[in-house]
Structures are given as structure tokens and as C-alpha cells.
């Protein structure tokens, strides 16, 4: 018996969803967003195809995180120079760039291949209640 794989759907429209992140836990929200960005919520899911939807997240600065994670979660990066290891806690990251923590959490839950950048481009993070994507008529979903 042959295994049938779905092909790229030409006539299917990409849906736009809007999610309110106010009061939601960071990593629980990130897992649900990653499932939608991967396309696993569609019956035509295939891991190698670009059939993903757009997600607009409003109030991304009002996510909730436990106190232990605020102090204990550390993000590392390296500049490329000798002794160039930089670290920042989640507390300071939320002060400097409020939506960057959600973006990093979702990025860590996506597949580590060439499709990841395309998935992240379809994640639109808005710090305030108002957004500029009204023309796409996003459908509001609660996660």
C-alpha cells in the first residue's frame, strides 16, 4: 500500500487569527501558537509544505510568568569574539523588549530547519490592543 502525501494547495486561502495574550502563561500560549504556525490544526497537514496561517498576538506585553522563571530563566547569546558570552534574564528581557520573550518561546518550539523562518514571519506580535491588520479580517480565537 502506498503512502499518499498531500500536495501544495494552490487555491486554499491562508487564514488570519487574532489572539489576546493578556493574562495567559507564556509557555502554554507559545505551544498553542506553535501548533497553529506549523499547520497541525489543519486536516491537510504535511511537515514539508507551506500551508500555514497568520497569527496576530495583541497585548503581548501582558503575559504572565511565575516569579521563579522571571529570576531563573536566562537567555544566552555569543558575540563571536573571545569572552563574548552575553546573558540576559527573562525579567530584563521583558523590560527591554516585551514581545521578544514570546517570540523566543515560539521559535524554540518550531522545527529546526529551513521552514522555521517562514513560520516566524507569519507570527505578528503587537504590544498594544490596536493592530494594523484589520484589512485581513482576522478571526478571533481563544487559546
What would you say this structure looks like, in words?
- By secondary structure, this protein is an alpha/beta fold.
- The chain has a domain at 16-64 and 98-140: Alpha-Beta Complex (Ribosomal Protein L13p, Chain: A).
- It is 29% helix and 17% strand.
- The chain has five helices and six strands.
- It has helices at residues 26-38, 67-72, 90-96, 100-108, 116-121, and strands spanning 16-20, 54-58, 74-78, 85-89, 123-125, 139-140.
- The strands form two sheets. A four-stranded parallel β-sheet has the order 5-2-1-6. Strands 3-4 form a two-stranded antiparallel sheet.
- α1 (26-38) links the parallel β1 (16-20) and β2.
- It is globular, with a radius of gyration of 17 Å.
- The model has no long low-confidence stretch (mean pLDDT 90).
The residue-averaged pLDDT reads 90
What fraction of residues sit in β-strands?
Answer: 15-25%
Helical content class: 25-40%
Low-pLDDT stretches are none
- Any idea of the CATH class of the domain at 16-64 and 98-140? Alpha Beta
> Under the CATH scheme, which architecture of the domain at 16-64 and 98-140 would be assigned?
Alpha-Beta Complex
Computed Rg: 17 Å
Number of strands: 6
CATH topology title of the domain at 16-64 and 98-140: Ribosomal Protein L13p, Chain: A
Gross morphology is globular
Strand order of the largest sheet: 5-2-1-6
End-to-end Cα distance, whole Å, is: 38 Å
- Written as H for each helix and E for each strand, in order along the chain, the element string is EHEHEEHHHEE
Keywords:
143 residues, 6 strands, 17% strand, 29% helix, 5 helices, alpha/beta, four-stranded parallel beta sheet, Ribosomal Protein L13p, Chain: A
